[in-house]
Amino acid sequence: MDKNIAGVTIQVNEEGYLTNFQQWNKEIGTALAQEANVDMGARHWDVIIYLQTEFKNDVPLSIRKIGKSGVVDIKEFYQLFPIAPLKTASKIAGIPKPASCI
Amino acid sequence: MKRIVILGAGTAGTMMANHLRDHLKREDWEIDIIDEREEHHYQPGYLFLPFDIYKPEDITKPIRDFIPNGVNLIHDAIDRIVPQEQFVHMVNGDRLHYDLLIIATGAKIAPEETEGMLGEEWQKSVFDFYTFEGSLALRNKLRDWEGGKLVVHITEMPIKCPVAPIEFAFLADSYFKNKNMRDKVEITYVTPLSGAFTKPKATTALQHLLDEKHIHIESDFAIECVDNERKMIVDYGGREIPFDLLVTVPTNKGDELLARSGMGDDLNFVPTNKATLQSKDYENVFVLGDATNIAASKAGSVAHFEAEILTDNILRYINGEPLKEEFDGHANCFVETGGGKALLIDFNYTHEPVEGTFPLPGIGPLRLLKESRINHMGKLAFRWIYWNMLLKGTHIPFVSTQMQEAGKEF
Lengths: 102, 410
Prior knowledge:
Number of helices of chain A: 5
Order of helices and strands of chain A: EEHHHHH
Distance between the termini of chain B: 50 Å
Strand content of chain B: 25-35%
Radius of gyration of chain A: 13 Å
Number of domains of chain A: 1
Structural class of chain A: mainly alpha
Shape of chain B: globular
Strand content of chain A: 5-15%
CATH superfamily of the largest domain in chain B: FAD/NAD(P)-binding domain
Helix content of chain B: 10-25%
Largest sheet of chain B: 5 strands, parallel
Structural class of chain B: alpha/beta
CATH topology of the largest domain in chain B: FAD/NAD(P)-binding domain
Low-confidence stretches of chain A: none
Strand order of the largest sheet of chain A: 1-2
Helix content of chain A: 40-55%
Oligomer: heterodimer
């Protein structure tokens, strides 16, 4: 479905995750963060860039992986994105929701 | 004479040994399979053992019974792989050269990854059911447990058989009902995901089961530690969930061997091409089953579909032909829902579980994503299929390697 944000139209799924990563840019990321009540700072962007890099390399993401990434530890990850951090950060990053089975 | 070495004689490795021996001439290729264990376990049975549905002897048989003639079974521990030199080093000092290596070393639980999980309550009020020992200890605990707060918990993804924990919760509901003590047990299901079911179609079709069975859900829970003294699990956000009996699925990791060999990721899973099943780092190394890092489910059905495609790809590789990018992440799983019923789900990398019929389009007899008795019979019958057909690499009639779209409601 279409979503208007930061002055452009992007495609998202029913849960609001971007379905085409090519459409993502930093303004869209900032606007998505505002919708999630996250005020983006430099540390937030470090995490977002890390998530996007892993996504491009087809690496499935998990809280653990982020904790061991050297980018942030899990405590800080929760401070940056307090509610459901991996899902929230994935949505802001324009990448799919972390995978599960059913 | 060239040599294929298969590491691991579990579901995936055993199937590969059977497939490849059928296809490769004995005078051209020696096939060795290495596993330090003596017994093959039917791992889906670990779910039934705690509830006295299966007995230990139902789910274990000698590994040797499933290895075909013409394949050498080596019962020894592996120290490491040296992929640059194409050698497998054994703990006893032996070295084995390979021309082609298949890694099928699976995944195992790593409770030591979570602070306090192996504390003084381990196997007193904190149990796993992903090992034979854990499942048996839990059976003994449940036999005289008088009730209280039962917490069924997933530590983190990925885990083997992602539906097993919710099946455990469903079967627990049935078990306590049958013992006339359901009113004494509070069942809470704790998951790091956003719900017990997270895909839209499955959520719509299955959410009612949780309500009917009075299973309370705690989602988005990323565990930091098990507090043994206060009998609580605590997450990084500070949430606390009390338990009288914790049944947890600890972190799952690939074999330590892969860390020693420098071939695994941070969870010791091997970086693998998700369509060809070739290692991303070494062209003569192939990986299947739970040992890969691909985003398919870690389940026997996935290993079964992978084995058929990987056999073709290994034959192509040997003949110098390009590999086919055929593996689509296909999985097919029965989900026990308790009370003698089960669901069947069928999905792949791109299609979420949907409604429809299986395996014959429009006919079934099994219905996808619908609870029924015949699905439960299917799950019980599957144990026979596993021992008698699946491990031996016999093709299962009507069940295709790639997911079929006919007869399904997308």
